[in-house]
């Protein structure tokens, strides 16, 4: 994203335009962007053309709100800055152990997945996943993790049923090698699924509600 657009979006977001429409004149926006009213009016039109904002023209003041595209591009920039200033070679996710629905184990033990896990991650997973509900303050770190490539596990079809692509991110829990697996069709925003060659609940004596730290490689 062009820096002139990201600068304008940051200013609008700080004024509250991420959550709802804000009433702002071209002159007020010009003051916020340290430019003339004419230049601010032009910047608004540019942002509209790029679909970064939507606008509602009122009687006295226009009302502006960031679009989903504008918010997502700001998030990308935010994650880049986090990687510069906060993150070195890993990021630590904090969360609590939670029982799953058993679906993870069914998918993980498919032979086509197992072969790829062994080849690409270096271990053959225990037939099941450890579900961790991520602490609310760490939800943003998931975007940082998803912004890196990860290890691609290819989907396949078996007996007329399709199994989607999976992205794996190498990680450690208490110095035990494991990986976060993110299915293409995942419905969870705050749950991560962990695979490991060991039965982590038994190996680490973990129970539902226990707090754990997951160190993810970047």
List key phrases describing it.
218 residues, alpha+beta, Arc Repressor Mutant, subunit A, Elongation Factor Tu (Ef-tu), domain 3, 2 domains, six-stranded antiparallel beta barrel, three-stranded antiparallel β-sheet, 8 helices, 12 strands, 37% helix, elongated
First and last CA, distance: 23 Å
CATH topology group of the largest domain: Elongation Factor Tu (Ef-tu), domain 3
Structural class: alpha+beta
CATH superfamily of the largest domain: Riboflavin kinase-like
Question: Whole-number radius of gyration?
Answer: 22 Å
User: What global shape is seen?
Assistant: elongated
Number of helices: 8
Low-confidence stretches: none
Number of strands: 12
Strand neighbour order, sheet with most strands:
4-5-11-10-9-12
Description:
The protein is of the alpha+beta class and 218 residues long. It has 2 domains: 83 residues, Orthogonal Bundle (Arc Repressor Mutant, subunit A); 128 residues, Riboflavin kinase-like (Elongation Factor Tu (Ef-tu), domain 3, Beta Barrel), CATH 2.40.30. It has 8 helices and 12 strands. The strands form 3 sheets. It has a 6-stranded antiparallel barrel. A 3-stranded antiparallel sheet has the order 1-3-2. Helix 2 crosses helix 3. The protein starts with a helix and ends with a strand. The model has no long low-confidence stretch (mean pLDDT 90).
């Amino acid at each position: 994203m062009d820096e002139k657009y990201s600068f304008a979006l940051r200013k609008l977001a700080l004024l509250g335009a991420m959550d709802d429409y804000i009433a702002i004149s071209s002159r007020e926006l010009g003051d916020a962007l340290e430019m003339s009213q004419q230049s601010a009016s032009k910047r608004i039109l540019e942002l509209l053309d790029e679909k970064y904002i939507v606008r509602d023209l009122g009687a006295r003041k226009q009302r502006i709100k960031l679009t989903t595209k504008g918010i997502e591009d700001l998030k990308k920039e935010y994650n880049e800055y986090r990687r510069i200033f906060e993150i070195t070679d890993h990021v630590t996710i904090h969360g609590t152990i939670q029982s799953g629905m058993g679906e993870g184990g069914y998918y993980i033990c498919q032979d086509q997945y197992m072969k790829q896990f062994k080849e690409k991650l270096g271990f053959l997973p225990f037939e099941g996943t450890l579900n961790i509900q991520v602490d609310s303050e760490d939800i943003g770190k998931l975007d940082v993790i998803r912004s890196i490539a990860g290890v691609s596990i290819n989907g396949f079809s078996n007996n007329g049923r399709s199994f989607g692509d999976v992205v794996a991110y190498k990680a450690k829990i208490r110095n035990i090698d494991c990986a976060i697996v993110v299915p293409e069709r995942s419905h969870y925003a705050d749950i991560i699924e962990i695979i490991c060659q060991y039965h982590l609940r038994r190996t680490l004596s973990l129970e539902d509600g226990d707090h754990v730290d997951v160190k993810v490689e970047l």
